Description:
Blueprint: E1 18-19, E2 26-31, H1 36-50, E3 54-61, H2 74-92, E4 98-103, H3 112-125, E5 129-133, H4 143-160, E6 177-181, E7 188-191, H5 196-204, H6 219-238, E8 245-251
Helix pairs in contact: 1-2, 1-5, 2-5, 3-4
Zinc ion (ZN) is lined by residues 32-33, 36, 145.
Amino acid sequence: MAANEPGQPDLNAGDGPTRDLPVPGVALAIGAHPDDVEFGCGATLAKWAAGGCVVHHLVCTDGSKGSWDPSSDVSALVVTRQDEQRAAAKALGATGTVTFLGEIDGELEVTLALRGAVAEVIRRVRPEVVLGHDPWKRYRLHPDHRAAGFLTCDGIVAARDPHFFPEQGLAPHRPSALLLWEADEVNHVEDVTATVDAKLAALEAHASQFESTMGAVDEDGLVAFRQRMRQRLAQHGERIGVDAAEVFAAMLDL
Ligand SMILES: [Zn+2]
């Protein structure tokens, strides 16, 4: 945990949220769809990448439902969304891998096979911090976000224990922290004042999603989207007295 400046309340004591993990050497963010990582933790990843962290992405589905146009070419959309995801990772400054599990968008399930696939990526990239969807978020509608959250948690348990999936032939790996975004109960805050622009640039790399996800059909819509995002980050920042923050449910004993 970062030390608090003199005169600041000690947020790591008592009931307040913890803040600002030390910059990890390696981080892995696991999203259900292309763009989820950027929405959930893009500014935190950009901050860490700037501090020397190798940032990896793992995207569980192919994003093939990411269009409201019934006549759109689904296979072309999948390719577009992979390109957009790679561009978004670059915009964050990420230098690690971008892995796609390729499950059908909307049909992600918490299976043993997929738990193994997530564990395998964790064992390969060996992240100190894993980030993902909070599967316990109440009243969450989208099944892929729930499933990706559970796969993230279950994948960590499998990755750290040598008796899970020994056929992978990989050394077990235990991350030191898990940060869950869209947190049902926030207990950790990352100051992202310096990387709001990087998060927005990464989100805007997902250009195929302007209409369906960002509600932006034209330049005015995009300006409004940017404003909404900045407002949300600023609201989170108020929790710890900074200009912008991303918030999480942190699990620090894995
Ligand atoms: Zn999503």
